[in-house]
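Notebook, bench 3.
Goal today: get a predicted structure for Sigma-54 dependent transcriptional regulator from Massilia pinisoli so we can plan the truncation constructs. The sequence was checked against the plasmid map this morning, with no discrepancies at the termini. Length recorded as 493 residues. Pasting the sequence as submitted so the record is complete.
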Amino acid sequence: MSSPRILVVDDEPDLRELLEITLLKMGLDVDGAATVREARALLGQKAYALVLTDMRLPDGLGLELVREVATNHKSTPIAVITAYGSAENAVVALKAGAFDYVSKPVVLDDLRAMVRSALKLSDPGAQPAAAPGGTSRMIGASPAMQALRAQIARLARSQAPIAINGESGSGKELAAREIHAQSARAGKPFVAVNCGAIPEALMEAEFFGYRKGAFTGANDERDGFFQAANGGTLMLDEVADLPLAMQVKLLRAIQERRVRKIGATAEEPVDVRIISATHKDLAKCVENGSFRQDLFYRLNVIELTLPPLRERLDDLPLLVDAILARLAGPGGARLGPGVLDALRSYAFPGNVRELENVLERALAFADDGVIEVGDLLLKGAKSGDAAVVPQGAAAPVAQVVTTAPVLPAPFAAPDEERGAAPDAATPPPAQPLSADALPSNLPDYLSQVERDIILRALNQTQFNRTQAASLLGISVRQLRYQMQKLDIHAPEP
Ligand SMILES: Nc1ncnc2c1ncn2[C@@H]1O[C@H](COP(=O)(O)OP(=O)(O)OP(=O)(O)O)[C@@H](O)[C@H]1O
């Protein structure tokens, strides 16, 4: 069998030769071209496992080749070589369909790593098996889901950063996991980080790691999220919650593909694909100054939007079947008359996660595994309304636990989705102040008021966070964050 063939397009003979020798030493066949015209001619004659092109060529731009290869040679990944410091070029090329980029001066180890992942992509035998008809875990046959699956399959073939938008519980993390699972990085870690749950003072250590003795308490050397995700995918969930100071450091790490542990003198290379997610409008966050434009530009190379459940209600039967089969085993639960219609007329502000919660609770109320409309506790909750749960109903509050993260809680994926209850050490409720009285400590007083209100909402919803967040007009993330901040603990399951 012949070796994979690579096309190197660069008009600088020295650099082209260096690249060619490096690739030949990797056991690959190499063709060289010095102009766009030569490259076009070769592309017309032979099939390539990878094209590597400089951005500026004597008769045109590497970008033209990127567009042509992305359109006419879909199974050939193309990567670009960008001038040092021209991050913008890299982003433009990725947006145009480039698989990845290397910066000048070319670090040969980076080049080899990039070539290896490109070759995995163009070798069908090495592809991770995708489920027939698309991805396996993302359920739904609606046109919106079919389009999403096709987009995920396409995105899995590139290394470009992806920004996923979507309401809380709509499947952003699931989509990120699917992209990872279908990509050449599938055998490497997927690390999900909830940026909103990391105390600011610990952020740098959590992201980049630290050396022993770097600060008081640093008793051992520790890797950060970047090192943990090396070779794989790092999902930055709720990325809008990153403080500005951390945004600068993150931007640098992403641009340079290098990080420095706290206390270390040298930087270390990291190879991670970044997927970010948020339910906020990041462009608005840029406008109001809470998110850096340059980081936004860097993360938002490709956008993926997840439709809310209420816009793909045709998927309800499939989703309900799958969730019930998971909760009760195949055939272990059935829907009574009118249940699907009742679900269809509900707005699902918490999307698929809320559907999971509703069904889990309903199943606990159901007789002989038959869920009736009354078991859903959606009373009065027509489209657009918040869910109404009768007070005092003794519902179990276990919620579905999502896939385990690679890193331990609380800083990795927020998977501890169970109900919350006031713990034994709960301080007494804040005493109302008379009209002219002042609290002796305003922040403490406000925290106490906030704590009381959150606990009230959790009590009213049998500690269902999705519903409590909806009652309070905040996202589940915000609620979770406030609970953590205010020390409202999850009870034992
Ligand atoms: N299309 C789908 N098919 C099957 N399960 C789904 C689908 N979409 C979401 N889910 C399930 O819904 C739950 C929430 O999904 P996920 O955590 O990916 O949402 P999210 O948008 O990341 O939520 P958040 O905004 O709170 O972080 C998970 O249990 C996930 O498995």
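Confidence is low (pLDDT under 50) at residues 129-135, 381-426. The CA atoms of residues 317 and 340 lie 7 Å apart.
Flagging this for group meeting.
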